[in-house]
Specification:
Blueprint (H helix, E strand, L loop, with lengths): L6 E3 L5 E3 L15 H13 L4 E3 L8 H9 L8 E6 L8 H13 L6 E4 L7 H13 L6 E4 L3 H9 L9 E4 L11 H7 L4 E4 L11 H9 L4 H10 L4 E3 L6 H8 L8 H10 L13
Parallel strand pairs: 3-4, 4-5, 5-6, 6-7, 7-8, 8-9
Antiparallel strand pairs: 1-2
This protein binds NADP nicotinamide-adenine-dinucleotide phosphate.
């Protein structure tokens, strides 16, 4: 029997499992579609019901893959999608969302994010998000790639405090947010969504990560995910198009790492000692 995935509660009270699934790179090649759909479905079967996508991924192709994967089981899923900054005007946001809904084959997006900051005033995008919320096309809205000063600015615009999440680059090799952004969000009950949680595979060859994982009968990917799952209010959204890896990632929940090993991991991947600007991929 699998250990249940711990849940995180959004500001509106919605509870969602902390370990979800990413989709960047999906929907780009029709020859991979079946495998991508099968992997997302396997992830859903394992309880990873939050699926993160964007109009950007595969030029809408990833949203279509998600639409296929959730067919007939929409109510058990929590769908996150994102609007391009250059679409995030008062009217452009609405159109972009309607196009995403069409590709996803659903009537609502659970969490709709501004993918990164662009030239439209935040107040305008927030107004569009609130309009979408009022019409039921989205349940909640949030942001992505927002550093602490961006969040503070967002809080200063009308409705800006309704932000439900901030999705940012966060993994063992990119711990900068622990200095200020993570505590800022935690103290306001705004969940962080950690993207590229295994640094797109690049950290998996790190000798200390391999050593500590082995000592805990785990894989490096599982240890990297477990590190993030330890933090309060942090969703983790690894992407895989491989059923075996979906299972492997799911099993990161069951790791029981000793304090000594967490300390060794901190020594290999030190936490930030000062403010560093938020990085993005
Ligand atoms: N908001 C933003 O600006 C932003 C930016 C980047 C990402 N994201 C979101 O976050 C999600 C995750 O980030 P990401 O896709 O950049 O990187 P990631 O999840 O850190 O890594 C994905 C890569 O790792 C491989 N992989 C997955 N599980 C593995 C395992 N257990 N062992 C070995 N390799 C494994 C995958 O290959 P296979 O598929 O072949 O398994 C894929 O190549 C994205 O898919 C996207 O939804 C958001």
């Amino acid at each position: 029997m699998d250990d249940p995935i711990p849940t995180i509660t959004f500001p509106d009270g919605t509870e969602v499992p902390a370990l979800g699934q990413g989709t960047w790179g999906m929907g780009e090649d029709a020859g991979h579609a079946n495998q991508e759909i099968a992997s997302l479905k396997a992830g859903l079967d394992l309880g990873m019901t939050m699926i993160d996508t964007a109009e950007m991924y595969g030029d809408g192709g990833a949203e279509e893959i998600v639409g296929q994967a959730i067919k007939g089981r929409r109510d058990e899923t929590f769908i996150v999608s994102k609007v391009y900054p250059w679409n995030a005007s008062r009217t452009g946001t609405i159109t972009a969302c309607e196009n995403s809904l069409e590709r996803l084959g659903t009537d609502r997006i659970d969490l709709y994010l501004l993918h990164w900051r662009g030239n439209y005033p935040l107040a305008e995008t927030v107004e569009a998000f609130e309009t979408l919320k009022a019409s039921g096309k989205i349940r909640a809205w949030g942001v992505s790639n927002f550093d602490t000063d961006d969040m503070e600015e967002l809080f200063s615009v009308p409705g800006g405090r309704n932000v439900a999440a901030n999705q940012v680059l966060y993994n063992l090799a990119r711990r900068g947010i622990e200095y200020d952004l993570l505590p800022w969000c935690q103290s306001r009950n705004i969940p962080i969504m950690a993207y590229s949680p295994i640094e797109q595979g690049r950290i998996l060859h790190h000798p200390e990560l391999i050593r500590i994982a082995k000592a805990n009968q785990a894989t490096p990917a599982q240890l990297a995910l477990a590190f993030l799952l330890e933090r309060d209010g942090v969703f983790v959204i690894p992407k895989t198009a491989n059923i075996e890896r979906a299972r492997e990632n799911r099993d990161a929940i069951s790791l029981d790492i000793t304090d000594e090993d967490w300390d060794a991991l901190d020594a290999a991947f030190p936490p930030p000692a000062k403010k560093t600007p938020l990085e993005m991929l």
